[in-house]
């Protein structure tokens, strides 16, 4: 399925921004981590969330503020707001002809993710690794701060992520 120019632009823009802002190996990562430490628990963190993070993510991703963002696993589409079953590890199996089984008027988010990745020549990305379940205790918190402070599912210190990573290494 070909994707629209807008869909292509959104995917590429989010992929590029994510590569800079959310790569712990990027040269600016220590700056983001230190900034997150200074903001955490301070009224300024709420200001950052209310004025910058939430509006950007709401417009681009229909963000529900889960606090444990998983867009990078789904071609920069939100599995929380765009999948009624919140599936992070693959389509539920109920979609038909690329349509969501719960909301047939909508395209399945996994179908859309595959189309984005196919357009980018990166369909192998959709089967790499496994994604731990959402950390519900982070609901309504800043996913940006949670990422940079190592509180989300991507943190090596997260027990669930460690177990998922270990099982993925054994499987793949």
Structure explained in plain terms:
By secondary structure, this protein is mainly α. It has one domain. Helix content is about 45%, strand content about 0%. It contains 7 helices and no strands. The two termini are about 30 Å apart. The mean pLDDT is about 85.
- Give the proportion of residues in helices: 40-55%
Q: What is the straight-line distance between the termini?
A: 28 Å
Approximate shape: globular
- Detail the poorly predicted runs: none
Instruction: Tell me the total number of β-strands.
Output: 0
List the total number of helices.
Answer: 7
Beta percentage is: under 5%
Based on helices, strands and strand pairing, what is the structural class?
mainly alpha
The major sheet is characterized as: none
Assembly type? single chain
What is the alpha-carbon Rg in Å?
16 Å
State the order of secondary-structure elements, H for helix, E for strand.
HHHHHHH
**Average residue pLDDT:** 86
Count of all domains: 1
How does the SSE layout of this entry go?
Layout: H1 5-21, H2 29-39, H3 43-61, H4 79-82, H5 109-119, H6 143-148, H7 159-171
Observed structural traits:
mainly alpha, 7 helices, 172 residues
């Amino acid at each position: 399925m070909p994707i629209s120019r807008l869909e292509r632009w959104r995917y590429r823009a989010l992929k590029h921004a994510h590569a800079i802002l959310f790569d712990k190996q990027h040269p600016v990562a220590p700056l983001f981590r230190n900034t997150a430490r200074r903001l955490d628990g301070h009224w300024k963190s709420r200001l950052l969330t209310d004025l910058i993070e939430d509006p950007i993510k709401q417009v681009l991703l229909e963000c529900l503020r889960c606090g444990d963002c998983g867009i990078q696993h789904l071609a920069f589409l939100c599995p929380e707001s765009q999948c009624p079953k919140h599936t992070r590890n693959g389509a539920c199996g109920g979609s038909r002809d690329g349509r969501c089984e719960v909301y047939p008027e909508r395209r399945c988010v996994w179908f859309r993710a595959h189309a984005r990745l196919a357009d980018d020549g990166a369909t192998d990305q959709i089967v790499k690794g496994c994604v731990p379940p959402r950390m519900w205790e982070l609901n309504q918190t800043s996913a940006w701060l949670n990422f940079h402070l190592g509180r989300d599912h991507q943190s090596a210190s997260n027990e669930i992520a460690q177990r998922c990573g270990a099982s993925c290494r054994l499987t793949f």
